[in-house]
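Late entry, nicotinamide-adenine-dinucleotide complex.
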Amino acid sequence: MQINKYERGLQDKVALVTGAALGNGRAFCERLAEEGAHIAIADIADATETVEAVKLITPHVEAFQGDLTNEAEVHTIVQNIVKRFGRIDILIHNVGIYEEEPFELLTFAQWRRMLDISLNSLFLTTHAVVPIMKQNQFGRIITLSSDIVWLGTPYLTHYATAKMGIIGFTRSLSAEVGKYGITSNAITVGLTATQRATDSPLSSSILQHILPAQSVHRSDEPHDIANVVAFLALPASGIITGQTINVDGGVARH
Ligand SMILES: NC(=O)c1ccc[n+]([C@@H]2O[C@H](COP(=O)([O-])OP(=O)(O)OC[C@H]3O[C@@H](n4cnc5c(N)ncnc54)[C@H](O)[C@@H]3O)[C@@H](O)[C@H]2O)c1
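Prediction complete; structure with ligand written out below:
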């Protein structure tokens, strides 16, 4: 394939960002829109605030509300996105929940809920989107994991399992879909100054103490992650696949 070495930006590409009603996902939507992408948001929560924020950059944005652990709802969302935008070029699997629980107190229900929201949603969404990307011979799948998979942070056995699962999925998929012009890469995110992180007792105390552990002594902000998301989404990044990029200020020197 001939690549225009000056090709840049995401003009008129269609990006589906999951879990973008708030937090990191909102920053991803804004950053991709700045590069010219049209933005579809899928979230179980009302994403009006994200839509309004993106509208300051582009009119091409819409939210599709639904539960991404429900197969029928995922199919309806994906069909509605294709009806509205014509195709899907970029999938950002950002949906997730965070919960700290000592292993001995962790219930099977908590364990299953974590895997359902982090991993089953990944399977369902990717399974629905890959045929569309394949048809267009172009796709960028970017999954959000966590640097705790390298650090072994306590009270997170269920979260760490789900986040490591995301990496295995992303790598294995890359080997299957590369021939269709689709790349699949993961980002391991450090503790980022989102609302969720500052609301969580363990995360907010870690946030205060984490800076000395970082090589770069400033907090990890959603736009730091968004820049890497935008880079991996570029057509010009098409040779990068099956990789995991750690973005945490250098806590885990992965
Ligand atoms: N913020 C951090 O410090 C940090 C650190 C490491 C990794 N991450 C990862 O980055 C991603 C985003 O983190 P965040 O802090 O912005 O999270 P967040 O909790 O602020 O946002 C997650 C979004 O997912 C949505 N969601 C939850 N369950 C859903 C479902 N079943 N269907 C559809 N939507 C659903 C929520 O409504 C919410 O809008 C997550 O995957 C998280 O694990 C975050």
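The chain has nine helices and seven strands. Will revisit in the morning.
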